[in-house]
Amino acid sequence: MKRAFSMIELIFIIAILGILAAVALPRLSASRDDALVASAKLDLKTALSDVITYNLSQGRYSRNIKDMTNVDFKNSSFSVKGVKCLKFSFLGMKVMQVDIDRSGLCDRVLSGSVVEPYLKMDAGSLTHTPTVSYIPLDESTISSLNDL
């Protein structure tokens, strides 16, 4: 009598391994996304702190956000997994306009982040929309940012 696996036993083993892989891969992907979201939230907090520090040391803002922080902003945009979540532009030196995209992982990054309350601040006559927000760059905003 031979001591080997039959073809049916091998097929069952392959099927069981396939089922285990089908269960494990989505969980692995979700864990990777969770790590990416946590890293992006930390990058946003660092960038916000850098901008505050730049303003306090220089007494002004730079027109280009990349000049004020070492966080990777390509074309004044904060991206997560290839999606531009936030795009910053200055309206004069008193208001920062933020274009918001909540698709992909961006919604998870922005909800509960340190930046979210500032995306809802009163900016005078400028009206917030779900895709555009305005952050006033005045003394009260700077003092509240310092409390981070």
Automatic annotation (TrEMBL):
Protein name: N-terminal methylation domain-containing protein
Species this chain originates from: Campylobacter geochelonis
A GO cellular component annotation in the UniProt record: type II protein secretion system complex
One GO biological process term: protein secretion by the type II secretion system
Top-level lineage group: Bacteria
Gene: pilE1
Keywords: Methylation
Keyword Oxidoreductase: no
Cross-referenced InterPro entries: Bac_GSPG_pilin, Pilin-like
